[in-house]
Amino acid sequence: MQEDLRLRHYTAEEAQPLVDQLVDIYLDAHANDGPLYNAERYRKQLAAHMPWPGWELVTATVDGDLVGYIYGFPLAPDTRWWDGIQEPVPAGFTEETGQRTFAVSELLVRRAWQRRGIARALHDELMSSRTEERATLLVRPDNVVALQAYKRWGWKGVTHLRPNWANAPAYLVLTRTRDCTAPTLPDATV
């Protein structure tokens, strides 16, 4: 990892001026992932996520240039995050209180800066500041590099989920508790 790497936390209000840069990094990181990964859809995603109470962004800059970020938010009792989850799941798994689960929505690093420890630094910085009992994220099952990293970082596969939006892929649901353990079903491996 670079010695000049700087990590910074932002609220949604503080992050608003960064939206164009966040979209640029998203497009760069997903350059080869197909038409689903486009600026218009991602701007809508950010606009929908940023107003959630507790939304938090951590950015990584090197020599003043934004090279990556991670963001997420606590899941509210009326969350739609779990819509499309595939059974079986442990009893009560999708019940939320607003303080139970932190959802990591994106962890992105520009392609030119990948494999340098920046994603791990972003992950650890955000996760170390969270007080929820667990965290969750969704990852494409074909994203082997990400799956291997998440496994090393204490995440466990639980089940699959297909979001209820047009052309949504099926994702693997990963969780991580504050003590880095999670329930794992036999057919959902990381």
Can you describe what's shown?
- Helix 2 (19-29) crosses helix 3 (39-49).
- The radius of gyration is 16 Å and the shape is globular.
- It has one domain (5-177): Gcn5-related N-acetyltransferase (GNAT) (Aminopeptidase, 3-Layer(aba) Sandwich).
- The protein has a 7-stranded mixed β-sheet with strand order 1-2-3-4-5-7-6.
- The protein contains 5 helices and 7 strands; from the N terminus they run E-H-H-H-E-E-E-H-E-H-E-E.
- It is an alpha+beta fold and 190 residues long.
- The longest helix has 11 residues, at 19-29.
- It has helices at residues 12-15, 19-29, 39-49, 118-128, 144-152; strands at residues 5-10, 56-62, 65-74, 101-109, 134-139, 156-161, 171-177.
- Mean pLDDT is 91; it is low at 181-190.
List key phrases describing it:
single chain, 190 residues, alpha+beta, Aminopeptidase, 7-stranded mixed beta sheet, 7 strands, 27% strand
Biggest β-sheet strands, sense, barrel: 7 strands, mixed
The CATH class: Alpha Beta
Arrangement of strands in the largest sheet: 1-2-3-4-5-7-6
The appropriate CATH architecture is 3-Layer(aba) Sandwich
Low-confidence stretches: 181-190
Please indicate the percent range of residues in DSSP E strands (runs of 2 or more).
Answer: 25-35%
Query: Order of helices and strands, N to C?
Result: EHHHEEEHEHEE
Shape: globular
Overall helicity:
10-25%
The CATH topology is: Aminopeptidase
Overall number of structural domains: 1
The total count of strands amounts to 7
Look at the structure and name the CATH superfamily: Gcn5-related N-acetyltransferase (GNAT)
pLDDT averaged residue by residue: 91
Judged by helices, strands and strand pairing, the structural class is alpha+beta
Distance between the termini: 25 Å
**What is the CA-atom radius of gyration, in angstroms?**
16 Å
Count of alpha and pi helical runs: 5
Protein name: GNAT family N-acetyltransferase
Pfam family, one: Acetyltransf_1
InterPro entries: Acyl_CoA_acyltransferase (IPR016181), GNAT_dom (IPR000182)
Organism: Micromonospora thermarum
